[in-house]
């Protein structure tokens, strides 16, 4: 993806003027925040880069209302610092993917919405999309659009809030977002089950999530991955409990009693637990390698079967988050990233979707990066995109494979 002239409007009105002129002249725009995820998606050509980096700052935050509104270019670190001062957090535990993409820059809150980035707590608190209450954005006509609000039920007509989440800058230029926030969880500890196979771990995680112990994170790391997270003792199945220390102690005993068939266990104290889950959240075991990396979402009990089917045919390794429903799959095959093998495994194991998060540009140009949609869904998606960006100026071709022809 070539470097382009970067325009960073200082106001929403300025952004609208730029987009209006671009639509009139047929100038295509790469939509970006801090630039940390530029290498995700199909390679495409654009005339200029429109960045939200200068649209920064928290515009409204009343801790008592559990809602924070910020301009799209606000650094995530600034958001988390403000929430931390008030004992609150973004419940969906967003990850920092700079280690995966190899990109410099600063993660922004608008990008969390645009890419729907969600971490380990998704199994208990939902995804970024579920916490997103409202958006302001500029559509492809240069019109300023506001949708949603400060309460979960403020939705009328087309739910553009949910459409913008995960649209990767193809529907509009986000200028402001509102998120529901929650009180911080207090302390935490993690029960580690040592030595379980992938299949055994799937059953153990399902049993743990079926208890009343309020597990807020469930991940399984095969032995090699566990070592990179700093855990010895073979494969590690992690079950996180959060809250008051007295409550955690009682719930840990109850959780152990609910898993009588588990191999040996140990407990990570707060510091070690936070460190381990941060590494899982940021996919640190697979950071910095440059090898093809897939993010596969399937039913929780299907994750280990998908990984096994793929790894029987292609060398690589995997680990599992979201109770096994999220498979991070790193492959050694650098030629074509084995998309047919990955997606066939997903289909045979009940369906889901697989996204090629990291691969060389030539590989991403030759395969569908995002899960191909069924024809009726693809047609509907195209109608929505055309309604919001009729001239097709935003990130043209980023999410849709064109059979290997580079989008222009």
Please give a structural write-up.
One of its GO terms (molecular function) is FAD binding. Keywords: FAD, Flavoprotein, Oxidoreductase. It holds the Pfam family FAD_binding_4. Residues 1-184 form the FAD-binding PCMH-type domain. The chain has helices at residues 12-25, 76-85, 98-101, 109-115, 122-125, 128-131, 160-164, 198-209, 223-228, 245-258, 270-281, 303-311, 339-348, 361-366, 375-388, and strands spanning 5-7, 29-32, 48-51, 58-62, 67-71, 88-89, 132-138, 144-148, 173-180, 182-183, 187-194, 215-221, 236-243, 265-268, 293-298, 316-321, 326-331, 352-358. The protein is of the alpha+beta class and 408 residues long. It has three domains: 1-183 and 372-408, Uridine Diphospho-n-acetylenolpyruvylglucosamine Reductase, domain 3 (2-Layer Sandwich), CATH 3.30.465; 187-281, Alpha-Beta Plaits (2-Layer Sandwich), CATH 3.30.70; 289-366, BMC (bacterial microcompartment) domain (Alpha-Beta Plaits). It has a five-stranded antiparallel sheet. A four-stranded antiparallel sheet has the order 12-13-11-14. Helix 12 packs antiparallel against helix 13 (339-348). The radius of gyration is 21 Å and the shape is globular. It starts with a strand and ends in a 20-residue tail after the last helix. The model is unreliable at 151-157 (pLDDT under 50).
């Amino acid at each position: 993806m070539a470097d382009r002239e970067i325009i960073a409007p200082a106001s929403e009105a300025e952004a609208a003027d730029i987009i209006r002129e671009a639509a009139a002249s047929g100038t295509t725009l790469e939509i970006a925040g801090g630039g940390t995820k530029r290498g995700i998606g199909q390679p495409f050509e654009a005339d200029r880069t429109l960045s939200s980096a200068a649209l920064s700052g928290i515009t409204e935050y009343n801790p008592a209302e559990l809602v924070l509104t910020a301009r799209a270019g606000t650094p995530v670190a600034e958001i988390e610092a403000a929430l931390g001062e008030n004992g609150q957090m973004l419940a969906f535990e967003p990850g920092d993917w700079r280690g995966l993409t190899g990109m410099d820059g600063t993660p922004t809150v608008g990008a969390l919405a645009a890419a729907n980035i969600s971490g380990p707590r998704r199994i208990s608190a939902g995804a970024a999309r579920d916490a997103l209450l409202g958006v302001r954005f500029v559509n492809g006509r240069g019109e300023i659009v506001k949708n949603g609000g400060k309460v979960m039920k403020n939705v009328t007509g087309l739910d553009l809030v949910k459409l913008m989440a995960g649209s990767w800058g193809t529907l509009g230029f986000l200028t402001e977002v509102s998120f529901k926030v929650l009180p911080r969880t207090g302390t935490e500890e993690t029960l580690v089950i040592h030595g379980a196979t992938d299949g055994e771990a799937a059953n153990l995680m399902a049993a743990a999530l079926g208890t009343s112990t309020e597990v807020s994170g469930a991940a399984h790391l095969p032995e090699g991955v566990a070592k990179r997270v700093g855990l010895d003792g073979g494969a590690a199945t992690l079950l996180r409990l959060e809250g008051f220390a007295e409550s955690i102690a009682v719930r840990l005993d109850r959780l152990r009693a609910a898993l009588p068939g588990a191999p040996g266990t140990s407990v990570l104290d707060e510091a070690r637990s936070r460190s381990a889950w941060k590494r899982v959240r940021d996919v640190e075991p697979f950071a910095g390698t440059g090898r093809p990396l897939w993010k596969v979402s399937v039913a929780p009990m299907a994750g280990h079967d998908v990984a096994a089917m793929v790894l029987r045919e292609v060398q690589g390794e995997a680990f599992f988050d979201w109770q096994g429903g999220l498979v991070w799959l790193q492959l050694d095959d650098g030629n074509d990233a084995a998309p047919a093998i990955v997606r066939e495994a997903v289909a045979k194991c009940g369906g889901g979707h697989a996204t090629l998060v990291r691969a060389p540009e030539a590989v991403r140009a030759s395969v569908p990066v995002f899960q191909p949609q069924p024809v009726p869904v693809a047609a509907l998606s195209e109608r929505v995109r055309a309604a919001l960006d009729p001239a097709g100026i935003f990130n043209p071709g980023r999410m849709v494979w064109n059979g290997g022809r580079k989008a222009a």
